[in-house]
Write a structure and sequence with these properties.
With 598 residues, this protein is an alpha/beta fold. Helix content is 37%, strand content 13%. The termini are far apart.
Length: 598
């Protein structure tokens, strides 16, 4: 040990890169200004590998220079080791050496996201002194093998180190606790805990009843084999512990009891509950709140074997639908009717960013009937309507699907989100503009908003922030949602995490037992910023060229983000193209071709 005068003294070990956030300078100050600690122990700093400080990055070089100056200031030569090089294979030996001298491991970082070195040190029998900010708090709670300190409190760091080094009984107790509990951070234990938590989660998806008495198709004829895995896995598990299903609510007493059971019992208990739910579904239909809301009527969508979804985003510079969108929809309706075999069990759906009242006006303007469609997906997937079902008695007004509203309500906090969106969109980069010198980028459109959609009009497109940038900023604030620009970049809409036009399609084929392989989505070459999500998948896609003159995709990506080719399949047998202005005969021929793709 060329650095240390007495290498047999207890070793205080710090192992981290020389980053300002790791707070190594405060550690040296604490050690240098505490004479009893210097007399009892040595300090070893493993700060990565270096050849020349001048060749290091600015931040790391600055920390190292400060470390050397502090060692000289407090005259710590012979008491502090700071080797230039070490191998990865040397690290276990370093931990063992510190343990052999009855030393302590310290992590004084300003904040530590997790603290893997604390786990490694505990596995080698080293007590710890660690920051009270971040992951070490959870590690200490599990291992109980040391002390937590305020990383900014120099005296607290020195006192904690001195306490562990000088009190041998405490040192032995922390060592035993660490070795006894370290298995809690093993991979088998982690997997066991993870699977137990997943199995114990309650459903965030309502347990819908699709086999109603009025169904014309038997369950075995619903052509939904592709959904078996989905029903068995993704719809059966949830990370949302606050939601219960609409048709099968678990009592609070049962939940409280399960919390007191061992992990094995919890898993068995939850799995038995899942099996009971499946048995209940097989036993027969029951009434539900959603059924009552439908006034005894069910959408004809549940009897469809094929579904044609029109999701064209043809808007002018003001965000109003163009006439060619009406003409294209009319041609698609004619095309399907040309083939009697296809038309017999086929339905139509419209998927749009327009709110319901605008969509109804648009259909009237284009001499199209609302009843021509089995489903209307409105406001960028925040509402789903079924013409002929879910109607308010007396008024004849369509109501949105209540099951879908419950489904997408997961983690949706519109009030706090509204304030954050407004602040992020209408604050200049850097926040340095004076009041009145910066015009607002967006303005709230209350008329087009609903309980699960915040709608805004774009006032200044040059100040609109990219979707990727906004998504990152919202996630940093703990807000999860779908933000999208739509209608030729004249609107911005924010919908829940589980809502979007593509998510609404997924809901339709799960809710009404549609076979996703028999779903045909008809799009333009561009569209709203959620357009790409609707191309890839197991459904068929028809892309009409030259129909959409301008979309909103320029507001989607930031520099260095994923590319469109990462989302949209290049040469897929499930994607076909047609020229703009295609007539009914051309469209039906493409549909027949796609139907052979499987």
């Amino acid at each position: 040990m060329r650095f240390l005068t007495n290498p047999h003294k207890p070793m205080i070990l710090a192992l981290s890169r020389p980053d300002p956030k790791k707070n190594l300078t405060t550690l040296i100050k604490a050690f240098g200004e505490c004479r009893p600690l210097r007399e009892l122990a040595n300090l070893t700093l493993i700060m990565g590998n270096r050849d020349d400080i001048d060749e290091m990055s600015g931040g790391n070089a600055s920390v190292l220079i400060t470390v050397l100056k502090l060692i000289d200031k407090y005259d710590l030569y012979g008491q502090v080791a700071f080797p230039k090089h070490h191998k990865q294979s040397d690290v276990p030996d370093i931990y063992r050496l510190a343990g052999k001298t009855k030393g302590v491991f310290i992590n004084p970082a300003v904040i530590e996201p997790f603290g893997l070195t604390l786990i490694e040190a505990a596995a080698h029998g080293l007590p710890m002194v660690a920051t009270k900010n971040g992951g070490p708090v959870d590690i200490h709670r599990a291992l109980n093998n040391g002390l937590l300190v305020d990383p900014h409190d120099q005296q607290a760091i020195a006192d904690a180190l001195l306490k562990l080094v000088s009190e041998k009984n405490l040192w032995q107790e922390c060592r035993r606790n660490g070795l006894k509990n370290i298995h809690l951070f093993s991979w088998p234990e982690h997997c066991r805990t993870y699977l137990t938590r997943v199995a114990a989660c309650r459903m965030r998806h309502p347990q819908w009843q699709t086999d109603t008495p009025a169904d014309e198709l038997a369950a075995e004829d619903s052509l939904n084999d592709s959904l078996k895995d989905v029903l068995d896995m993704s719809l059966r598990l949830s990370i949302d512990g606050d939601k219960t299903s609409l048709n099968d609510r678990t009592s609070l007493n049962e939940q409280k009891t399960s919390l007191n059971e061992s992990s094995d019992d919890v898993v068995k208990h939850v799995m038995s509950r899942m099996n009971r739910r499946q048995d209940d579904v097989a036993a027969g239909p029951r009434d539900s709140s959603a059924d009552v809301a439908a006034s005894g009527k069910y959408p004809v969508l549940r009897r469809r074997r094929k579904l044609f979804v029109v999701a064209l985003d043809c808007y002018d510079g003001r965000g109003l639908p163009e006439k060619k969108m009406v003409q294209t929809i009319q041609e698609i309706l004619k095309a399907v009717k040309l083939d009697a075999q296809i038309a017999r069990f086929s339905g139509f759906a419209l998927s749009t960013a327009m709110p319901m009242y605008e969509l109804v006006e648009f259909l009237k303007w284009g001499n199209l009937k609302v009843g021509d469609f089995d489903a209307l997906i409105c406001s960028s997937g925040s509402e789903v309507y079924y013409p002929g079902a879910y109607v308010v008695e007396g008024g004849g007004k369509l109501c949105p699907d209540p099951d879908y509203a419950t489904h997408i309500d997961y983690r949706w906090g519109s009030d706090g989100l509204k304030k954050t969106i407004w602040k992020l969109m209408n604050t200049p980069e850097g926040g340095g503009a004076k009041s009145g010198s910066f015009s607002c980028a967006v303005e709230e459109d209350a008329k087009s908003s609903n309980s699960h959609c915040l709608s805004y009009s774009i006032k200044d497109l040059t100040k609109a922030k990219k979707v990727d940038d906004m998504r990152q900023k919202l996630r940093m604030r703990g807000l999860r949602c779908h933000l999208m620009y739509c209608r030729n970049s004249t609107r911005m809409q924010v919908v829940p995490l589980l809502a979007s036009r593509s998510q609404a399609l997924r809901y339709l084929f799960v809710r009404w037992r549609l076979n996703v392989a028999n779903m045909y989505v008809i799009l333009g070459e561009t569209g709203d910023t959620d357009y790409e999500e609707m191309i890839s998948g197991a459904h068929k896609t028809i892309i009409l060229k030259d129909i959409v003159s301008k979309g909103s995709e320029e507001l989607l990506r930031t520099t260095g983000s994923y590319l469109r080719d990462d989302i949209v399949p290049g040469d897929s047998p499930l994607v076909a193209h047609a020229k703009g202005g295609a007539k009914a005969e051309e469209i039906i021929n493409i549909i027949r071709q796609l139907s052979k793709a499987g």
